[in-house]
Amino acid sequence: MMHVLITGGVKGLGHACLRAALNDGARITVLDVDADGLAQLPESVAVIRADLAEAADLKAAVDRLEASDPFDVVIINAGINATGAFETLSVAQQARVVAVNLTAPMLLTTALIKADRIARGGRLVFVGSLCHFVSYPGASTYAGTKDGLTVFARSLRRPLRRSLGIRVQVIAPGPMDTDHATEHSPALDNRGSRVSPALVADAIWRSRSRFMIVPGMAAGSASLLGRLLPGLAGNIMRRVIFEKLQARALAPSDPSL
């Protein structure tokens, strides 16, 4: 039976990945900060409650994972955002985004590899972002963490494949139809135009060998524009995201997935 680890598996994309794994008959472990949400998961799902920004919680989670059976698929999904004009965000907000989105994934990956907890031939999937290609004005720290995570994954790709047979992948979705995305979106944003978490989860499940997965035609087109005409892509993102965020006058925020 396939053994799957999902961080941030209570809501949004992580929960869609959980449903896909359950449909495939997998054995699942979910790590999340939401204790109430974890309690609502099926009894067959093993749960680890941890705030990845807290060193003690992270260590306790690592101890649990090191004692588990090896995982065939690891999906590093947990993440948070903080939106608004860069100068309005506190150092504490930015530090928390970096801790959850970048530091914790790097440390969890290190622990899993050192403890040989990812099975040979297994998959290590990092949830990045379309902002890797087009930037993200109004969420600079978030964008920096996702870009850092992508480069981290790219740097691991060949060494882990050659030495341990582990496939490293990144999925770079655009705006998804989740409550988390809505909270950090501009006013009047058309939620119906966003990609469904189920579609993104399906792309993760089906794309077992490709390194960079960009799900959906809209995201694929945007990533191509970002590569070919980065200046134009940046201008579009500024108008579509940053200027509307300013108009909405969002207070700096830091919710968990």
Could you list some keywords that capture this structure?
257 residues, alpha/beta, Rossmann fold, seven-stranded parallel beta sheet, 7 strands, 50% helix, globular, disordered C terminus, oxidoreductase activity, oxidoreductase, SDR_fam
What does this structure look like?
The chain is built from ten helices and seven strands. The chain has 257 residues and is of the alpha/beta class. The chain has a single domain (3-248), classed as 3-Layer(aba) Sandwich (Rossmann fold).
Q: Which fold name fills CATH's third level, the topology? A: Rossmann fold
CATH architecture: 3-Layer(aba) Sandwich
* Largest pleated sheet: 7 strands, parallel
DSSP summary, beta strand count = 7
Order of SSEs, N→C?
EHEHEHEHEHHEHHEHH
**What is the CA–CA distance across the termini?**
28 Å
Arithmetic mean pLDDT: 86
Q: Helix amount, in percent?
A: 40-55%
Q: What is the rounded Rg?
A: 18 Å
> Order of strands across the biggest sheet?
3-2-1-4-5-6-7
Tell me the number of helical segments per DSSP (H or I, 4 or more residues long): 10
Class from helix and strand fractions: alpha/beta
CATH homologous superfamily designation: NAD(P)-binding Rossmann-like Domain
Low-confidence stretches: 249-257
Tell me the count of domains.
Answer: 1
Q: Please report which band the strand proportion falls in: under 5%, 5-15%, 15-25%, 25-35%, 35-45% or over 45%.
A: 5-15%
CATH C-level name: Alpha Beta
Pfam families: adh_short
InterPro entries: NAD(P)-bd_dom_sf, Sc_DH/Rdtase_CS, SDR_fam
GO molecular function: oxidoreductase activity
Keywords: Oxidoreductase
